[in-house]
Amino acid sequence: MCIRDREASRSRLLAGSLLFIAGFSAVFVSFGALFGGLGRLLLEWSPVLTRVAGVVVILMGLSFLGALPWLQRERRLRHRPPAGLAGAPVLGVVFGLGWTPCLGPTLAAVNTLAYTEASAGRGAILALAFCLGLGIPFVLVALGARRALMFSALARRHAPTVMRVGGGLMIALGILLLTGWWDALMILSLIHI
User: Fold this and answer.
1) pLDDT at position 64, please?
2) HSE, side-chain direction, 13 A CA sphere, residue 7
């Protein structure tokens, strides 16, 4: 394969990965905005709903730690989008709607935070940050970065540790929501801005 063909192949792979990311980002950002907007509508119930959200985030953290295996059941959509660049965003949407088990607890925590923020815009921004964190490795692999592949192998080796740390952080966040400390921290952060 000549250099020009390799570059064309790399460009096509990069375009495909960006379209795939755009597909799942459309789903996740829409959910973030929806949950943020729902939070705005239910603002008067905020103290109760924030505590319920705290319990949900704690459950998701426990799920991340493997303590609640029934929350990690997998459901798959069986739709196969067309191959090629036209199918990449469709595949991203299907991926986003599929809520793969590794994303479920984290995405639930993101949407819970969007809900407690009571703003569709903030919910969308939280979901967009989630999408960037999820999408950047796809772009790095598409670019052919060997370091991205080495990082992928490193991440697989350390997945149990990452899951434990992530689960612990989610439980801590849930406790902050449940006790009302999250609201206090948000108020303090606004005062210092």
Assistant:
1) 76
2) 3
